[in-house]
Automatic annotation (TrEMBL), chain A:
GO terms for molecular function: proton-transporting ATPase activity, rotational mechanism. V-ATPase is a heteromultimeric enzyme made up of two complexes: the ATP-hydrolytic V1 complex and the proton translocation V0 complex. The V1 complex consists of three catalytic AB heterodimers that form a heterohexamer, three peripheral stalks each consisting of EG heterodimers, one central rotor including subunits D and F, and the regulatory subunits C and H. The proton translocation complex V0 consists of the proton transport subunit a, a ring of proteolipid subunits c9c'', rotary subunit d, subunits e and f, and the accessory subunits ATP6AP1/Ac45 and ATP6AP2/PRR. This is V-type proton ATPase subunit. The lineage of its organism: Eukaryota, Metazoa, Chordata, Craniata, Vertebrata. Keywords: Hydrogen ion transport, Ion transport, Transport. The keyword Transport applies. It comes from the Eukaryota. Subunit of the V0 complex of vacuolar(H+)-ATPase (V-ATPase), a multisubunit enzyme composed of a peripheral complex (V1) that hydrolyzes ATP and a membrane integral complex (V0) that translocates protons. V-ATPase is responsible for acidifying and maintaining the pH of intracellular compartments and in some cell types, is targeted to the plasma membrane, where it is responsible for acidifying the extracellular environment. May play a role in coupling of proton transport and ATP hydrolysis. Regulator of osteoclast fusion and bone formation. The gene is LOC115573082. Belongs to the V-ATPase V0D/AC39 subunit family.
TrEMBL record, chain B:
This is V-type proton ATPase subunit a. Its main location: membrane. It comes from Sparus aurata (Gilthead sea bream). Residues 94-128 form a coiled coil. Belongs to the V-ATPase 116 kDa subunit family. Pfam families: V_ATPase_I. The lineage of its organism: Eukaryota, Metazoa, Chordata, Craniata, Vertebrata. The chain crosses the membrane at residues 409-433, 454-472, 544-565, 572-597, 640-663, 776-798.
């Protein structure tokens, strides 16, 4: 019943933004664009080509010489502009949904600032490197905190991240390892909360978002497991970091916590058809792809599905993620172009292949 | 006229441009706007083309110009006159412009940076003075309060401390420190909260708002700020406090330790602020001077860069010949303009001082050329109406010249009112007279632009409305009695009782003297008083609509012959045009004949016996009419004859063309001759010869080369042709009925307009006129105001738009589908005047 109501009145509140985001999605670079970009010899060529896409004068409006990092920051600024346009026009519950998207960037920013502070870096130097989507007022003060508890009670209690701290509060001193654990704990709480939020919205939003978030949770689980090889992290420690909303829950998580090497992880993944593909050995003829890239590929696939249905919030999440992937692609190509690594230039992850 | 009827004759030409003079030649062509360039290297991507570096340079200049324009706008300096039209700069002069621009940019950047620095400095100093002024109050207040013994129950320790002097605190190992500064008002609460949380209360925060708005250095917006003073104990806490201040972007200023120091600082600040003000004023003056100097030539530069970029873009479309010494461009060009084109190339070569001239060479082609119809400011509006439906195929009959008359006329039939027509015509005439006014021309208001672009259409519509208003004898729903009515009431000889006892009296035209003859122009004004006015006008307007519609459609069908003759498809004349015309005229033409006959044959005397045309028309199809009195002798025979002809023309229309084409294709391959577009080629025997030779090589048939494949070729498909013709036949025959009915909208809209204006008069104006006292005169003023507003908004604008749309439909559907294909491609010449500038788009110009 609730579902029907949401679909019925969806356009009243969110129709404009959905239309907007679908329009912006139409500007995502096509395979022809990538093909042309990959032919470029200099960043100037890329700038010229991007002018004919929806990016328009984005790159040409600056006086400085083009560098890869400038391209990266411009693309990021572009995404932030688009996102803040969406966010400022959004009504609840879409506004909450959009806020949830920013929380993951906030978590990354917090951890980045903590590790930066541990390395005695200046805050002024660290702040520009934070992702602007995850910016919040108290950001600069993060470095003051010595323990997670202090971090929580003094600085982050007012931020939307506060609820995610429930399991992360501890009195141990923050070091790099601890910061990484903190990140994963926060992320676990965040993704579980986001998952249940989408579930509560119900309808098509839940149908679309839950698989995406479940995939995200499982990806983190795998990555944590793979990265934990060779550290003193125990099985119990690890399973405290695994998000429990994914498809791996509960049996897969239990097995992964015990896994000691890559083969064991692969054995676990083999039980799940969607992850079996990712961990499969590459075919002899094909290019070698890192595990990360394979996960990205899978993520892009899932996000593209969101645009097949109407009247749901998934398009917003998917758009941000796809756009991020596109930025990564462009930066990758730009990097290859500047470093004259033409052979690797095709290792980007195509979005919407086959659309022209 | 022939060019307006058919469009210009076009040809494909090759331009051989010497590489030295290519730039000048293309610049000349851009000024003239004669030719459309074709892309000769479509497979090369944008950044791999020859002149990509020059284009990049142009873009760099555009960026600097955009920056300059923004700064000029910001400084509120108006740009000088815009009527200059400088030619594209020579490539060797470009560097000079580039250098000038770069110098300006650097200079401007430096000055603005300086200015910003100074402003920031000034802001800091003002903030500092505010802080000192306000914190002094804090100190005074605490000094006043101290004897009152403030109770901080939460911090018993602090309470004790406040009583101690500084030295005793030092002894305790804790140092009292102060941090003071400014923070944005919105942030103060969060700031206070975090201070409390992090420092666990080992701080005292006092703050007060600054009354004035201070400019936010990042956004430039005026914001409210708060001055705060934090007193803390201990270095560690001090560190934290400082970090928190950083986090909230507080502007922290040193806190003077004593009153004397404070006074000194305030004094010093005052003088520094004064100094800064003078420096800042100087800087601003200088900046303004730089900008004014830049603004003088910035418009010229914008145009020059725009032109230059366009030229390089065109050069990128050209290909190099084998020797790499000359550029080859392919252009579409009107045949008549070839001499002008030659002259332009000569001029370009002369300017660049090239020894080898650039020249034009016409080349034969099998491509369909784009359509160019030259228009002037009067015809362009009507041409736009036609083009909105579809750009005509190459050399097709263009409906626009006829539209110039028929469109306003059909509009006026629906909008017929003298008064409204006058208002509309006056409004349009004003626009026409002021058309050179830049303010009207360059406005960015889209709705206004629509009206302004169509000013000549509106003028014609207004004039025709005056005419039809005279015919309908309607002026704001009232009739004008100019010539004196043709009816006389006196001649009826009514007595006084008859006058008093009857609400309605009938004038009988059969009584001598009552009807003295028709009114000289249009409807007799006496009908305005008649109770059966509506019935009378309905009958009249309905018949008129049908007559106009049939004439309009027959005209469309007749226009199709021009196409058939021009495209050498004579068989269409007999197999398509003739049956179509016969079908239309035998059925609906005859209806028109009957209407006219009835009008002429029956006068007031025998009007009682006047037959119903509808019944006669229906009987014509049923082929019976025994019960009715014939309109004229031999009616039944003629009617049967007409129906038979109409029915017979349907199979001819259906089968004639496909069967003929089939026969043509199977019977004689030899019949296929050069036709249609090769007229262009005929001009040069040599080329024709080359063409033939080329054909032989290719081994293809001649017809392959003719423009639209009007000759049946190998791929002739009888079933396909038959299907198309069947669709056309069905559409035409049914269309004749439905289109004729569609023209009744003329009557309906005209009726609606007349009734609406009558209602407006009766409901608004008459109310005011009824009051017959001095008060009534005063009352009439607002009533007339209301009447005027409603007349303009509802009758003129809304009704006008609706009549416009209906006239548009009658032209697009009912008229143009009889002959107009509208499947062409518009000729878009390379002309500097047509190029949009990105600055106009950004609103900078």
């Amino acid at each position: 019943k609730e579902e029907g109501k949401i679909t019925l009145t969806f356009n009243v509140d969110h129709g404009y933004l959905e239309g907007l985001v679908r329009g912006m999605k139409a500007g995502i670079l096509t395979s022809t664009d990538y093909h042309n970009l990959a032919q470029c010899d200099t960043l100037e060529d890329m700038k010229l080509h991007l002018q004919s896409t929806d990016y328009g004068k984005l790159l040409s409006s600056s006086e400085e010489d083009l560098t890869v990092s400038l391209v990266d920051s411009k693309l990021r600024a572009n995404l932030v502009t688009e996102f803040s346009c969406l966010r400022s026009n959004a009504l609840p519950p879409l506004s909450t949904f959009l806020d949830y998207i920013t929380y993951s960037y906030m978590i990354d920013n917090v951890v980045m600032l903590i590790t930066g502070a541990l390395k005695q870096r200046d805050v002024a130097e660290l702040l520009p490197r934070c992702h602007p989507l995850g910016a919040f007022d108290q950001m600069a003060a993060v470095g003051i905190a010595r323990t997670p508890t202090e971090l929580y009670s003094a600085i982050l209690v007012d931020t939307p991240l506060a609820p995610f701290f429930q399991d992360a509060v501890s009195e141990s001193n923050l070091d790099e390892m601890e910061a990484e654990i903190l990140r994963n704990k926060l992320y676990k709480a965040y993704i579980e909360s986001f998952h249940s939020f989408c579930k509560n919205i119900g309808g098509v939003t839940a149908d679309i978002m839950c698989p995406v978030l479940e995939f995200e949770a499982d990806r983190r689980t795998f990555i944590i497991t793979v990265n934990s090889f060779g550290t003193e992290l125990s099985g119990a420690d690890k399973s405290a970091l695994y998000p429990s909303c994914g498809k791996l829950y509960p049996e897969g998580l239990r097995l992964l916590a015990k896994a000691e090497d890559h083969e064991q992880v692969k054995a676990v993944a083999n039980c799940y058809p969607e992850y079996k593909l990712i961990f499969d050995d590459p075919e002899p003829g094909a290019d070698f792809k890192t595990l990360e890239d394979r996960f990205f590929e899978q993520e892009v696939k899932l996000n593209m599905l969101a645009f097949l249905q109407q009247f749901h919030f998934g398009v917003f999440y998917s758009y941000v993620k796809l756009k991020e992937q596109e930025s990564r692609n462009i930066v990758w190509i730009a990097e290859c172009v500047t470093q004259r690594q033409k052979s690797k230039i095709h290792n980007y992850i195509p979005i919407f292949p086959g659309t022209h | 006229m022939s060019s307006l009827l058919r469009g210009e004759e076009m040809c494909l030409a090759q331009l051989f441009l010497q590489s030295g003079s290519a730039y000048d030649c293309i610049s000349e062509l851009g000024e003239l706007g004669l030719v459309e360039f074709r892309d000769l290297n479509p497979s090369v991507t944008a950044f791999q083309r020859k002149h990509v570096n020059e284009i990049k340079k142009c873009e760099e200049m555009e960026r600097i110009l955009g920056y300059l324009l923004r700064e000029v706008k910001k400084a509120d300096i108006s740009l000088p006159e815009r009527d200059v039209n400088p030619v594209a700069p020579l490539p060797k002069h470009v560097m000079a412009i580039m250098e000038q621009l770069q110098r300006l940019e650097v200079e401007l950047g430096e000055v603005t940076r300086n200015k910003e620095k100074l402003q920031r400095n000034l802001l800091e100093l003002t903030e500092y003075t505010h802080m000192l002024r306000i914190t002094r109050k804090f100190v005074q207040r605490t000094a006043e309060r101290e004897p009152l013994q403030v109770q901080y129950e939460e911090f018993p320790f602090l309470e004790k401390e406040t009583m101690m002097d500084y030295s005793s605190m030092q002894r305790l190992g804790a140092k009292l420190g102060f941090i003071s500064g400014l923070i944005q008002r919105v942030k103060i609460e969060a700031f206070e909260r975090m201070l409390w949380r992090v420092c666990k209360g080992y701080t005292i925060l006092s703050y007060a708002e600054v009354e004035e708005y201070l400019e936010n250095p990042d956004t430039g917006e005026p914001t409210k700020c708060v001055v705060f003073l934090i007193s803390y104990w201990g270095d560690q806490i001090g560190q934290k406090v400082k970090k928190i201040c950083d986090c909230y972007h507080c502007h922290v200023y040193p806190y003077p330790s004593s009153n004397e120091e404070r006074n000194d600082v305030v004094e010093g600040l005052r003088t520094r602020i004064q100094d800064l003000h003078t420096v800042l004023n100087r800087t601003e003056d200088y900046l303004r001077q730089v900008l004014i100097k830049a603004s003088e030539s910035v418009y010229t530069w914008v145009i020059q860069v725009k032109k230059m970029k366009a030229i390089y873009y065109i050069l990128n479309l050209c290909s190099f010949d084998v020797t790499n010494k000359c550029l080859i461009a392919e252009v579409w060009c009107p045949v008549n303009d070839i001499p002008t084109l030659r002259r332009a190339l000569e001029e370009g070569s002369r300017k660049s001082g090239a020894t080898v001239p650039s020249f034009v060479n016409r080349i034969p082609t099998s491509d369909t050329p784009p359509t160019l119809i030259k228009t002037n400011k009067f015809t362009s509006g009507f041409q736009n109406i036609v083009d909105a439906y579809g750009v005509g195929s190459y050399r097709e009959v263009n409906p626009a010249p006829f539209t110039i008359i028929t469109f306003p006329f059909l509009f006026a039939v629906m909008f017929g009112d003298l008064g409204h027509g006058v208002i509309m015509a006056v409004f349009a005439a004003w626009m026409v007279l002021c058309e050179n006014n830049r303010k009207l021309k360059n406005t960015r208001n889209e709705i206004w632009n629509t009206f302004f672009e169509g000013r000549y259409i509106i003028l014609m519509m207004g004039l025709f409305s005056i005419y039809t208003g005279l015919i309908y004898n309607d002026c704001f729903s009232k009739s004008l009695n100019i010539f004196g009515s043709g009816w006389s009431v006196k001649a009826m000889g009514w007595t006084k009782e008859q006058w008093e006892n009857n609400r309605f009296l009938t004038l009988d035209p059969n009584v001598t003297g009552v009807f003295k003859g028709p009114y000289p122009l249009g409807i007799d004004p006496i009908w305005n008083l008649a109770s059966n006015r509506l019935t009378f006008l309905n009958s009249y307007k309905m018949k008129m609509s049908v007559i106009l519609g049939i004439i309009h459609m027959s005209f469309g069908v007749i226009l199709s012959t021009y196409n058939y003759l021009h495209f050498r498809k004579k068989y269409n004349l007999y197999l398509v045009f003739l049956p179509e015309l016969l079908f239309l005229l035998c059925l609906f033409g005859y209806l028109v004949f009957m209407i006219l006959y009835k009008w002429l044959a029956f006068s007031a005397k025998d009007s009682r016996h006047a037959p119903s045309i509808l019944i006669h028309f229906i009987n014509m199809f049923l082929m019976q009419g025994d019960g009715l009195q014939p309109l004229y002798p031999g009616q039944t025979g003629l009617q049967i004859f007409l129906v038979v002809i109409a029915v017979l023309s349907v199979p001819v229309l259906l089968l004639g063309k496909p069967v003929y084409l089939y026969w043509l294709h199977n019977g004689s391959h030899r019949l296929g001759l050069y036709r249609g577009y090769e007229r262009v080629r005929r001009n040069s025997e040599e080329e024709l010869y080359l063409m033939r030779a080329h054909d032989m090589e290719e081994g293809s048939s001649h017809s392959d080369l003719s423009s639209s494949g009007e000759n049946p070729t190998e791929e002739f498909d009888f079933a396909d042709e038959l299907l198309h013709q069947a669709i056309h036949t069905i559409e035409y025959c049914l269309g004749c009925v439905s289109n004729t009915a569609s023209y009744l909208r003329l009557w309906a809209l005209s009726l609606a307009h007349a009734q609406l204006s009558e209602v407006l008069w009766a409901m608004v104006m008459r109310v005011g006129l009824r009051m017959d006292s001095t008060l009534g005169v005063l009352f009439l003023v607002p009533v007339f105001g209301l009447f005027a507003v409603l007349t303009v908004s509802i009758l003129l604008v809304m009704e006008g738009l609706s009549a416009f749309l209906h006239a548009l439909r009658l032209h697009w559907v009912e008229f143009q589908n009889k002959f107009y294909g509208g499947t062409g491609v518009k000729f878009c010449p390379f002309a500097f005047s047509l190029l949009p500038s990105s600055f106009e788009h950004d609103g900078l110009l």
